């Protein structure tokens, strides 16, 4: 149910961009320039420094000045096969087609040459730990150490079986296994037979390492059959398995960093599929990723956490490219984000250490660094989950339906990238940068208005949508400058965007405040822009909260004038200070803060809750006294705004609903204060809350409104349950003391006990007197409550209860049946052997006979009663 949202986007113009080129030409006409067509390969360091390889040497494209480290002599006109930055020693490494490896120290301007293999190399890939370099020629694989020595060689097309390859003999084959009805339909479908490569296959050898560098996947072309095949090797060069062949396989390969999944793609009729394999070569699963006509996959890769699969497409003409980001939940693959680039892409890759950072460099020389976050779009108890061109709507108040199921879907013409909700309005940003607004009517979203955003800059990144109470929609637009745009929803005639604020220094988050916006800069400092008299925005002078790092999952509460966010070290930060550590997710409203935390030595997570007023009135870290254990890895979806339900999503994807005692008691306090006693009684019965809270919450208020209490509940069952639960203890100083830190009426109860006045006695008397003053019709329906009040007193007033029911039954027509019913009720609360003796003490023989009949003692006393009569 989580969506993939851009947390920050940094756009940098490199030395290849036209803007930088013009500046250089204006500053010094004699300065040498660099053209994009000269770049043969690009790589990015862990510090996001961009290096470009040309025929002459290496440039740092992200620097302000041109610096060339020449390698013309060492290169000897060979083609660059791979170009990488080795972050452990901060060197650049280029593998050439001649089998030569160039080791470049850019800072010192030196180049070392290592002749590794004498044959032509067509592919190369460093292991993630940079200890093993795998070189591929047309027929062989060469495993090379960090010192550029070959320690193993294997044939590329091996006919033998791998070490872990699944062997099936007879009954282990697919044909002998139970297939079911769906399998029988596909028996004639021949997908396991390999086919010749496609016309746009470049016949490259593809290499992909797993995250711990123990295994590598290889995809190659069998020259004899022109089939594309794949196999797995370990880091020592031993063959592990061959992947099962499929038809129409494409030139793609990716190894998931965590686990044992290998991904590739194939074209099936008019659709494209991503297929997953186990390490033993067996197919595991697949999913459709759209039509394949006119496009091809240029690159396939996972982030280092293995929870986002990136698929880079380009059309066969090479005029446009797009990057899709897929995530999985409950075995359902969903397209969560799409980036469309009108120009070609030189490099697209995940960051080697930051799992949520993705970057790409276009042929125009612009580099874009994007940090993603997983967020739940939760508002008004409704969750919106993106799945390509559909948005799944789940109303948790109606039913917590787990994904991929939902209550209904909203369909859009393009892939949805970002969603925002506020006060019954939802805005959707599509991959073509168009904006659609929907309005919530009777708990269902209906189309409201569509905005034309063609006036936005080309190839910009639009993110961080924000709605406010005035139906104003705003977003950050990052390009060569960082802009804050506004889109008016309220005025139907105005559908154009307006740039409110524009700077060169990046800012990553914004939210609406009174008369302006609050923004977070690249240094973590929060500042505000305020609208002046000319309807323009200017930087405000007053100091706002600042942190040393960028916060994620930011939230601004206008009523409290507070900013919440999670730091890089997973500290929950409020107004620039850390209040809680090890926070995974959190939710906040005007009264409470809920957070899921994970201790460093704990096998489970904890759901913690704290009052917002306690957080904002202290300068220290809070210690949540109220918490409960939840499954490790659980994520907080949200909590009910006017209730006590909290929704969590487990690591497997299923949803769980829990009721927090703190929220339950808060809701009960509100109901009692508003004299909605029946609603409170139903909640107490359902969740086993001690009903003494009715009185102990505010004794004077309860006694004063005892009549409204009886009439509002109006149910003998609930009233009897309340009377039965009465005791002289004060729950606000006992089991619920944490929720009543300042109990003003505790001394009041102690005074009553000292004076000999019992809490139970006073409540029973008040309820009984009120019921007996009603008309006979209402008394009849609530008379069991009168009986309960007699029997709850200490000692139990059984004789008074029997006399009262006898007297009441004589007043009513058909009182005999009521009398038996009420006597039976008394027998449930009082022992039978004592009940008959008490009945005799009333000197009412008819009552005693009725009690004897109810207690099945007629055979002992029946003859005696008849003779007396």
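Sequence proposed for the structure above (869 residues):
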């Amino acid at each position: 149910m989580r969506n993939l949202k851009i947390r920050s986007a940094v756009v940098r113009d490199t030395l290849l961009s036209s803007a930088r080129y013009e500046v250089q030409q204006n500053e010094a006409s004699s300065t040498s320039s660099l053209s994009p067509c000269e770049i043969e390969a690009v790589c990015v360091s862990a510090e996001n420094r961009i290096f470009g390889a040309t025929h002459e040497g290496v440039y740092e494209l992200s620097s302000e000045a041109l610096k060339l480290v020449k390698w013309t002599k060492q290169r000897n006109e060979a083609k660059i096969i791979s170009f990488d930055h080795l972050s452990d020693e901060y060197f650049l490494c280029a593998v050439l087609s001649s089998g030569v490896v160039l080791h470049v120290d850019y800072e010192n301007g030196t180049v070392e040459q290592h002749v590794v293999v004498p044959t032509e190399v067509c592919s190369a890939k460093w292991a993630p730990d940079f200890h093993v370099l795998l070189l591929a020629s047309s027929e062989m694989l060469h495993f090379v150490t960090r010192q550029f020595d070959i320690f193993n060689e294997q044939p590329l097309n091996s006919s033998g079986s791998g070490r872990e390859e699944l062997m099936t003999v007879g009954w282990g084959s697919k044909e002998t296994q139970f297939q079911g009805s769906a399998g029988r339909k596909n028996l004639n479908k021949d997908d396991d037979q390999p086919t010749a490569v496609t016309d746009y296959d470049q016949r490259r050898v593809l290499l992909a390492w797993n995250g711990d560098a123990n295994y590598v996947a290889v995809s190659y072309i069998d020259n004899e059959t022109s089939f594309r095949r794949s196999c797995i090797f370990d880091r020592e060069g031993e063959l592990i398995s061959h992947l099962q062949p499929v038809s129409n396989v494409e030139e793609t390969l990716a190894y998931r960093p965590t686990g044992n999944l290998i991904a590739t793609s194939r074209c099936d009729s008019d659709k494209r599929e991503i297929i997953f394999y186990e390490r033993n070569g067996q197919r595991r699963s697949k999913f459709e990723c759209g039509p394949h006509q006119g496009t091809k996959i240029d690159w396939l890769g996972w982030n280092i956490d293995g929870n986002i699969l990136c698929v880079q497409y380009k059309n066969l003409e090479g005029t446009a490219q797009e990057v899709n980001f897929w995530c999985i939940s409950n075995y359902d693959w969903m397209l969560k984000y799409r980036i469309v680039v009108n120009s070609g892409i030189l490099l697209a890759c995940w960051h080697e250490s930051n799992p949520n950072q993705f970057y790409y460099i276009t042929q125009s020389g612009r580099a874009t660094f994007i940090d993603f976050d997983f967020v739940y779009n939760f508002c008004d108890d409704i969750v919106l989950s993106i799945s390509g061109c559909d948005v799944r709507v789940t109303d948790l108040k109606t039913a917590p339906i787990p994904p991929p199921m939902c209550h209904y879907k909203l369909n859009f013409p393009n892939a949805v990238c970002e969603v925002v909700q506020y006060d019954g309005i939802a805005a959707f940003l599509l991959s073509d940068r168009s904006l659609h607004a929907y309005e919530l009517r009777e708990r269902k979203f209906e189309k409201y208005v569509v905005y034309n955003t063609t006036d936005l800059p080309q190839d910009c990144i639009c993110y961080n949508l924000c709605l406010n109470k005035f139906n104003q929609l705003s977003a950050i637009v990052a390009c060569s400058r960082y802009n804050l745009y506004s889109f008016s929803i309220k005025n139907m005639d105005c559908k154009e965007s307006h740039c409110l604020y524009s700077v060169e220094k990046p800012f990553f988050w914004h939210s609406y405040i009174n008369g302006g916006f609050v923004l977070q800069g690249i240094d973590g400092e929060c500042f505000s822009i305020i609208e002046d008299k000319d309807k323009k925005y200017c930087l405000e002078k007053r100091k706002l909260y600042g942190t040393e790092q960028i916060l994620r999952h930011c939230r601004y509460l206008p009523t409290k004038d507070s900013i919440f966010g999670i730091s890089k070290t997973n500290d929950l930060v409020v107004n620039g200070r850390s209040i809680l550590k090890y926070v995974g997710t959190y939710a906040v409203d005007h009264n409470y803060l809920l957070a899921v935390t994970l201790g460093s030595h704990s096998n489970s997570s904890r759901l913690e809750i704290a009052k917002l007023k306690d957080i904002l009135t202290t300068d220290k870290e809070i210690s949540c006294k109220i918490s409960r254990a939840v499954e490790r890895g659980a994520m907080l979806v949200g909590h009910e705004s006017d209730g006590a339900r909290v929704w969590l999503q487990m690591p497997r994807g299923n949803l769980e609903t829990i009721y927090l005692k703190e929220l339950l008691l808060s809701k009960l306090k509100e109901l009692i204060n508003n004299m909605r006693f029946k609603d409170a009684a139903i909640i107490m019965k359902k969740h086993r809350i001690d009903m003494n809270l009715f009185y102990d919450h505010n004794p004077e208020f309860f006694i004063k409104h005892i009549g409204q209490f009886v009439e509002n509940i109006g149910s003998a069952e609930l009233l009897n349950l309340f009377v039965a639960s009465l005791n002289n203890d004060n729950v606000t100083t006992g089991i619920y003391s944490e929720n009543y830190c300042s109990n003003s009426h505790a001394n009041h109860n102690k005074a009553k006990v000292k004076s000999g006045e019992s809490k139970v006695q006073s409540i029973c008397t008040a309820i009984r007197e009120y019921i007996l003053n009603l008309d006979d019709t209402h008394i009849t329906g609530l008379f069991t409550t009168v009986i309960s009040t007699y029997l709850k007193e200490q000692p139990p007033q059984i004789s008074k209860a029997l006399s009262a029911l006898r007297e009441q039954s004589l007043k009513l027509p058909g009182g005999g049946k009521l009398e038996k019913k009420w006597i039976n009720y008394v027998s449930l609360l009082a022992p039978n052997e004592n009940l008959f003796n008490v009945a005799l003490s009333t000197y009412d023989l008819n009552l005693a006979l009725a009690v004897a009949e109810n207690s099945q003692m007629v055979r002992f006393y029946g003859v005696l009663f008849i003779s007396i009569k």
